[in-house]
Amino acid sequence: MLKIRKASKNDAASIALLGRITFNESFGHLFRDKNDLSQYHLRTFSVNKIKSSVQKRENIYWVAFWDDLPVGYAKLKLNSQSDFPDSVQVCQLQKIYVLKDFLSMKIGLNLQEELLNEARSLGNESIWLSVWDGNSRAIRFYEKNGFDKIGAHDFQIGKENFDFIVMAKQLVEK
């Protein structure tokens, strides 16, 4: 049975572990130098970094549980201006990650609904995200849920360079 709740600093270890595992499931095979991947994990998914991030006012996290096991999480960043969306009140869907074994259970969709409802309730006009251009499953998911491609950028991790698509969705009618 699925349960989703907002995260607190007490969830930092679960989120950090989920982040490492889901990142590896999605991107691990793309790294020629596994040390670059390890360094990224240390910088991005340390328990202390997640604990600090969860406590920041502009960040809202959710954790998804299936039969009381943490299986996914989402992160919304408020007031996240970008060169891409044309809105004053804009936020960013920074992460929706679900363990591979649970992808077919619509957990990502449920996390997204929680996140979008919160974004709307806080008065955001639009929301944007970046998705790796090789992740066709995620791109289809976002397109199916009303996100449009609005730009592109690249991102460097160690020796690897990744191309990302920027997508956005209006949260209120203009």
Give the count of structural domains. 1
CATH top level assignment: Alpha Beta
**CATH topology tier name:** Aminopeptidase
Query: Which homologous superfamily in CATH is the superfamily?
Result: Gcn5-related N-acetyltransferase (GNAT)
In terms of DSSP E residues, the strand content is: 25-35%
Give unreliable regions as ranges: none
Output the radius of gyration: 16 Å
Estimate the helix proportion, in percent: 25-40%
User: What class do helices, strands and sheet pairing give?
Assistant: alpha+beta
Describe the 3D structure.
With 174 residues, the protein is of the alpha+beta class. The protein has five helices and seven strands; from the N terminus they run E-H-H-H-E-E-E-H-E-H-E-E. It has helices spanning 12-27, 34-44, 47-55, 107-121, 136-144; strands at residues 2-6, 59-66, 69-77, 90-98, 126-132, 148-157, 160-170. A seven-stranded mixed sheet has the order 1-2-3-4-5-7-6, with helices on both faces. Strand 6 and strand 7 (160-170) form a beta hairpin. The radius of gyration is 16 Å and the shape is globular.
Short description:
The protein is of the alpha+beta class and 174 residues long. It is 34% helix and 34% strand.
